[in-house]
Write a structure and sequence with these properties.
The protein has 496 residues and is an alpha/beta fold. It has 18 helices and 20 strands. The chain is globular and about 65 Å long. The chain starts with 12 loop residues before the first helix and ends with a helix.
Length: 496
């Protein structure tokens, strides 16, 4: 399906850009998995399956394949990846191969399953295509198996920012409504671990899988037929993995290629123009809803309400999470949950029980009138832009890490408006400093997180905020964004 074929002379520039979207790697992958090959994925007993990547997802893939009787070979570019000793203890017959994936012998392999952390350009896709060997990810296996065996409903959530928040919101709403719902995927619980638990009798198949799916996972998924799907937003991210921004947009847009309900963000032109408008579309946005299939906000007698059409749903200031971006997230969650929840009252009850994510605008401490917030999960510019835009107080911003070739100039205006001082950390501090110099606020470099926290405490005035919202990947200084947030919180608590 060509999602960008509806472009006329009155359409804005972003639509003209969208029509140039080309991602040859994705096209090649799509050509490798005709529909008639799906049975290969659900009939793996005795088949030789090569798993690329030995991380958390790779481990779940190995566990599932072993459970269904496949002959598993695990490969990783690292000689001894973290956790390999535990894997070898759990699976004594596991064959492990180390080194570049292009050097592996694929002659006797029936299927390749790749982890989302493995770049597609590290895999010899053309060779595998010639050998008629399909390359898929764990989400494709999950969706094929679910269709074949379990028939649980699947709601899919993607976007540059807000995925985990909306995934947990939806899961909470559905659970409060009485459904057996489980959040899986990019949020941290691999889908195949849940399937393994089902077939081994540890749990039953849920009513609903609430699937957070990243663009990397979409790239290796072809059975994109969800009961409901949403792209929350699209902004620059992962440009170190995609050939250009258009390829990233194309990847996200594929989530709408199925037959289920499609939830679109009215406030994001790239999302709204990702597919032609049709009867199976519901929208949300921070504007007055204009139809009974539109979720939004409206002001009635000086009170702002979340609304569905002309129905008042709940007051926006009653939401248990802060920021305008979380009003948008709540609307998206309500729109997606409405596919299963029988009343708006039940949905709101569930939404009010959602208390937020660790490392996402998480209040850490109040130190002498200065409040410290941990937004370490903001690993891209769009997330940090949303975090700063939602502030009502002046803030000190701790920013930096691995920049992923993003455009940090987009932060300039919001920094000028709401940030007193920027403190930079990480390997790309100088690149970021040059990009935001037009904001006209002091920019200070810190050697480490503890130094950044102490500098911010010295600069901050009473009633200020200190916000860690790095807009960057964390791997230059930390294990991951969780480790980064933990180090930040430890440094803040040392001030008390």
């Amino acid at each position: 399906m060509d999602y960008y074929n509806d472009v006329g002379p009155d359409r804005p520039l972003y639509a003209e850009v969208a029509i140039t979207v080309k991602n040859e790697l994705i096209n090649m992958m799509n050509a490798q998995l005709p529909l008639q090959q799906r049975e290969k994925i659900t009939a793996l007993q005795g088949k030789v399956v090569l798993v690329l990547g030995a991380g958390k997802t790779g481990t779940s893939i190995v566990r599932w394949l072993t459970c269904v009787g496949a002959v598993v070979i695990l490969a990783d570019s690292r000689a001894r990846p973290p956790g390999i000793a535990r894997l070898e203890a759990e699976f004594p017959d596991l064959s492990f191969q180390a080194g570049p994936f292009i050097n592996l012998n694929y002659d006797d392999v029936d299927l390749v399953v790749t982890s989302p952390g493995v770049p597609l350009d590290a895999i010899p896709l053309e060779e595998l295509k010639q050998k008629n060997i399909s390359v898929v990810g764990d989400i494709e296996i999950f969706l094929c198996e679910n269709t074949e065996r379990f028939e649980s409903k699947v709601l899919a959530i993607t976007g540059t920012n807000g995925k985990s928040t909306v995934t947990r919101m939806v899961e909470t709403i559905l659970k409060v409504s009485g459904a057996d719902a489980v959040a899986v995927g990019n949020i941290g619980t691999p889908v195949l671990d849940i399937l393994t638990q089902i077939v081994t009798g540890e749990r039953k198949a849920p009513d609903v899988f609430v699937l957070e799916i990243s663009s990397f996972q979409i790239d290796t998924t072809f059975t994109l037929d969800f009961h409901g799907a949403v792209i929350l937003n699209i902004s620059e991210d992962h440009l170190d993995r995609y050939e250009n921004y258009e390829a990233y947009i194309k990847s996200k847009s594929r989530i709408y290629s199925g037959a289920g309900k499609k939830v679109l963000n009215r406030d994001d032109p790239l999302v709204m123009n990702s597919i032609p408008m049709s009867d199976d579309i519901v929208t949300f946005g921070l504007s007055q809803p204009d139809s009974d299939v539109a979720w939004g906000v409206g002001r009635i007698e000086e009170v702002e309400w979340l609304m569905l059409g002309d129905q008042k749903i709940c007051r926006s200031d009653d939401l248990p999470v802060l920021g305008r971006h979380n009003v948008s997230n709540a609307l998206a969650a309500l729109a997606l949950s409405a596919l299963f929840v029988s009343s708006n009252e039940i949905a709101v009850n569930g939404l009010m029980k959602y208390s937020g994510l660790d490392h996402r605008m998480q209040m850490v401490a109040d130190v002498d009138g200065v409040r410290f917030f941990n937004d370490s999960k903001a690993t891209n510019v769009g997330a940090t832009l949303a975090a700063i835009s939602g502030l009502s107080e002046v803030a000190i911003l701790i920013l930096g890490g691995q920049s992923k070739q993003q455009n940090f100039e987009t932060l300039t205006e919001v920094i000028r408006q709401k940030i007193r001082t920027v403190i930079l950390i990480g390997q790309d501090a100088l690149i970021i400093k040059a990009a935001i110099e037009g904001a006209g606020v002091p920019v200070i470099e810190a050697s480490n997180m503890a130094d950044a926290v102490h500098l911010s405490a010295d600069i901050a005035e009473c009633d200020d905020l200190v916000l860690l919202s790095p807009a960057c990947a964390s791997f230059d200084m930390f294990d991951d964004y969780i480790h980064r947030g933990d180090v930040y919180m430890e440094a803040v608590r040392s001030l008390i």
